[in-house]
Write a structure and sequence with these properties.
The complex is a heterotetramer, with two copies of chain A and two copies of chain B.
Chain A: H1 7-11, E1 20-21, E2 24-25, E3 27-28, H2 39-51, H3 62-82, E4 90-93, H4 96-111, E5 117-121, H5 130-139, E6 142-146, H6 156-164, E7 169-173, H7 185-194, E8 198-202, H8 214-217, E9 221-225, E10 236-240, H9 242-247, E11 258-260, E12 268-269, H10 283-299, H11 301-320, E13 325-327, E14 337-342, H12 347-355, E15 359-360, E16 362-364, H13 369-375, E17 380-384, H14 391-409
Parallel strand pairs in A: 3-15, 5-6, 5-7, 7-8, 8-9
Antiparallel strand pairs in A: 1-2, 4-10, 9-10, 11-12, 13-14, 14-17, 16-17
Helix pairs in contact in A: 2-10, 3-10, 4-5, 10-11, 11-14, 12-14
Chain B: H1 2-16, H2 22-35, E1 49-50, E2 57-63, E3 69-75, H3 78-91, H4 96-101, H5 106-109, H6 124-141
Antiparallel strand pairs in B: 1-2, 2-3
Bound molecules: pyridoxal-5'-phosphate (2 copies).
One pyridoxal-5'-phosphate sits between chains A (32, 95-97, 125, 127-128, 173, 177, 202, 204-205, 225, 227, 367) and C (255, 279-280).
């Protein structure tokens, strides 16, 4: 048994949660869009810029070496956090979107050709759709998507049928940002591998909520963003199996990623991970992301999940009493996501009235338009929880929603 | 004719004067939204849609016998519709020139100026722009 | 006449400059690799994360709107800082390298084909070489480079001859990070345009040191990095003329950059600037870069340049007394760069001995290997100055270099 | 034979014991660099180059009549050459097994451990690795 989280105590580490909006205490339930950051992370970034910033890798001076050590140490933290075999399998990117585009353009152009199929799912975030559509258009491949059942689970039958057709790649979301659905990453990977597909997993909403072990899962690529896992903006991670990464062409050219540059004789590239990290990296972001992951690990993944499930369950229970309530995605509360529409109201109206009561939720399509199409809705209201949310906040949110609905129906 | 615009804005400003918080303001905006005549489904064409809002807004304009512009608006979100109702109330039936040149000070006065920022999802800014565009178009027609 | 900088007072805004390395007070002369950041910038980033962080653009809640306003306001600051006509011509990127790759892959793939020439110069940073080599390889074009004269100036004759052959693009550095050469961006742009070439300028080392007005220069693309201009890491800017940007395909796909996503009907893209900004941007970085540019503008570009020229001149004068001193790049001191080799010593040895005296310089090829080849040297020692450097530091640096040389020759 | 390695390391450690700062240490390292026999230009082949340093390091190894490994090293940077000299002094003439297994504690003792980090530009780490690789290779030859 993991020790339960003391969210009230944890909150003290998040100064932003003390603020008011529209004259009301802020209730921040938009964790899935971007998490707030604990002081430890904010201070790590500040500390770096105040006391040991320098460009990395290229310098003989002490400051540059100190910065390089911290930067590379952060890489090792990420490696261990997601269970990668080697630290060179961890590539820094500008974010999850950047990472998926890297794979699409580097691995994709080499392995996906005319007539090939790229398999995704109907619950993907645009970040895991558009790069594949762009690639497909360029090389003459096509994108297919596995159907989603009414409850928000993947349609296993449809998946089996579509895998049977031999797609080159299966790219899927570990945890859906809209539905909260937790896909069985390991089983899906095995299934896809058995069908001969390479596997990319979008772990943006998994890493903040649960333990992830890429070697156990067995996937070929795994990606996530720093800003959703209590880390800073502008930094993300691409994990790839060494063999695959080594065979891939670099995507961006520039400093750091070269071995030797010559205009007459052409250019040779550096080894992993630098081959994929052209230019000055987001040094402070990488270092602070390392701090964020250690901080999160310190809470205990079990405790985090228990806490967030408790909040989601309480929210669902409270909201259920509202007439016309329709939850979108009902398979799991593990990821702390509660998404819904209410008959006769528009998500934008609910969101606006919640905001004026101090409650921050996200409304709209959550960058999952194909999913909205699937459910025939323009968008949802989504409350999403992090470690810093409390049962009391959930109650405030539920009461505020009830009030909003009353006003709208009035 | 711009006195009419002035007068309408003063009326609206007065109406909003005593609201103490956003919930009260929205309550009134919702009321206005409900009172606004809906646009027939047949008229909700894509060409009347205003881009850039989480909710959809349809805006129609026509010149009446006196050369004034008659606006109709609707939205699938009721708060957005209420904002549209305010705009229609302020501008509908005015001559194109007034619509084009009119300073819509009431928006700031009643505290909705934040809603005018280009980054807002409610479409108020797009509505105002689109109404001005209609004004320009009708002006050009003479 | 602009008011002279008071570097001693300015230094108080840079906490890192108070530290020691190897038991000696730090003398940071590695500004061209990465600038240190004033407290105002560090605090802006911290303030954002402490008090109003949220994901931008997509939210109806107050926090998201506040973050979006600050983020877009920073864009406007950049626009005004470089004199762009419209704010949508300012695209956020992960850095200068990222920006050049964006242009190479988006504009380049559409406009450069088999047999075409991409013209660069021998003084380019790898960031302005490798992306073009990669593009050239992909489409069957080739890369040519304008020669550099012994003094570090562009070879005008060679330039004229190479432009006459009708390259599609002329990509050149505004200010050389190795030589300090300041190219006449406006004249070169006119010349290249007259020859029918599109013009991209690498302004990484210009924006920190001088006023740049892209409309006056007339270039088609202009790029720079935040971390070299007193801003944070992980953020950079691509300026492009609206007409060009509008015609370009997006490079990265994902959230934010779409109009509508459908798996069956395909995807349509958003307008400028969002079309090029897929995914959650580096929000805190953009905001802090805005603060950095305003801070720099507050010092007055004239005063900045005067100060840095004074430091460079003093350094050159002091170093000249060393036997066997050879300056690499002697056309200008405007960019605060002094690059040199000393007969019978290796740059690495000089750099190491300077470091042990607390002086941080850069040694090596400075990501300009073709330039090293041009001069037949393995690398240089480069001291580069920012607004926070003082004449006293220059003297310390010169004395430390003299001592290093004595030890090495001893 | 590993006593010999032990003894050599103790000697080196003693030599460095009284240096008060880095400048003194480097002064001595430079001295050692100058004393190290240079490698003939003809032997400075790319195959003897060690990667990953700002300066170039050449390292050659050969087995002598007693089955011990004789190292020669050179560099275009004198501090790097001095580090190479230290390594040669510690390891040259020892049996492959000692080279492979030997714990090179003197590096930390004389304060050069920071130079062993993989991110350092001086190539010390690569030198150590390459010497161990030679040891392994000669061991395999038997
Ligand atoms: C002239 C020049 N161009 C391009 C770059 C690349 O910038 P970044 O590494 O920030 O992408 C640099 C800095 O390293 C530079 O000095
Ligand atoms: C499931 C999922 N995938 C991908 C993304 C894209 O992440 P980012 O915008 O940080 O690149 C997000 C977040 O927006 C997400 O929730």
């Amino acid at each position: 048994m993991s020790k339960a989280l003391d969210a009230a105590a944890l909150r003290l580490q998040f100064p932003i949660l003390n603020r008011e909006v529209n004259g009301k205490p802020l209730v921040y339930l938009d964790h899935a869009a971007s998490s707030q950051k604990p002081i430890a992370v904010i201070e790590a970034q500040r500390e770096y810029l105040m006391h040991y910033h320098a460009n990395v890798h290229r310098g003989v001076h002490a400051l540059s070496q100190q910065a390089t050590d911290a930067f590379e140490n952060a890489r090792t933290i990420v490696q261990h956090h997601i269970g990668a075999e080697e630290s060179c399998e961890t590539i820094w990117t500008g974010g999850a979107t950047d990472a998926i585009n890297l794979v699409a353009q580097s691995w994709g152009r080499a392995h996906i050709g005319a007539g090939d199929t790229i398999l995704i799912t109907k619950m993907e975030h645009h970040a895991n759709i558009v790069p594949w559509q762009m690639l497909a258009e360029e090389v003459g491949a096509h994108v297919e998507a596995v159907e989603v059942l009414e409850n928000g689970a993947l349609d296993e039958e449809d998946l089996a049928a579509k895998l049977a057709k031999g797609p080159r790649l299966f790219a899927f979301v570990h945890v859906s940002n809209t539905l909260g659905t937790v896909n069985d990453a390991k089983a899906l990977t095995e299934q896809a591998h058995a069908a001969g597909a390479t596997v990319l997993i979008d772990g943006c909403q998994a890493v903040p909520h649960m333990d992830v072990d890429v070697q156990d899962v067995g996937c070929d690529f795994y990606i996530f963003s720093g800003h959703k896992v209590y880390g800073p903006t502008g930094i993300g991670v691409l994990y790839g199996k060494r063999m695959l990464l080594e065979a891939m062409r670099p995507w961006r050219g520039g400093g750091e990623m070269i071995d030797a540059v010559s205009i007459e004789n052409g250019t040779t590239y550096a080894g992993l991970p630098h081959k994929f990290e052209a230019g000055t990296p987001h040094i402070s972001g990488a270092i602070a992301l390392g701090v964020a992951l250690n901080w999160l690990k310190g809470l205990g993944a079990g405790a985090v999940m228990d806490h967030e499930m408790m909040l989601a369950a309480q929210a669902r229970k409270g909201l259920s009493s509202i007439e016309g309530m329709r939850f979108i995605g009902t398979t799991s509360e593990a990821a702390g996501v509660v998404s819904f529409v209410i008959e006769g109201t528009h998500p934008y109206d609910i969101g606006t009235l919640l905001d004026s009561q101090g409650v921050a939720v996200r409304t709209g399509h959550h960058c999952t338009q194909p999913l909205m199409e699937r459910y025939g809705i323009p968008g949802t209201v989504r409350a999403s929880f992090g470690v810093y949310n409390t049962l009391q906040e959930v109650d405030t949110f539920v009461a505020a929603t009830v009030k909003a609905v009353r006003m709208l129906r009035g | 004719m711009s006195e009419l615009l002035q007068q309408r804005q003063e009326e609206i400003a007065e109406e909003f004067e005593f609201f103490e918080d956003w919930m009260e303001r929205y309550e009134h905006i919702i009321e206005l939204g409900k009172e606004l005549d809906p646009i027939a489904e047949a008229d909700k064409l894509d060409e009347h849609l205003i881009r850039g809002c989480q909710s959809r807004v349809w805006l129609l304009a026509a010149k009446d016998g006196d050369g004034n512009v008659q606006f109709r608006a609707d939205s699938d979100a009721i708060i957005t519709k209420g904002l549209a109702a305010l705009m229609v109330r302020a501008l509908s039936g005015l001559p194109p020139a007034v619509i084009v040149q009119g300073d819509l000070w009431f928006i700031e006065k009643i505290g909705l100026d934040a809603h005018l920022s280009p980054t807002r999802a409610n479409g108020l800014r797009s509505m105002v722009q689109q109404m001005k565009h209609y004004g320009i178009a009708f002006q050009a027609q003479g």
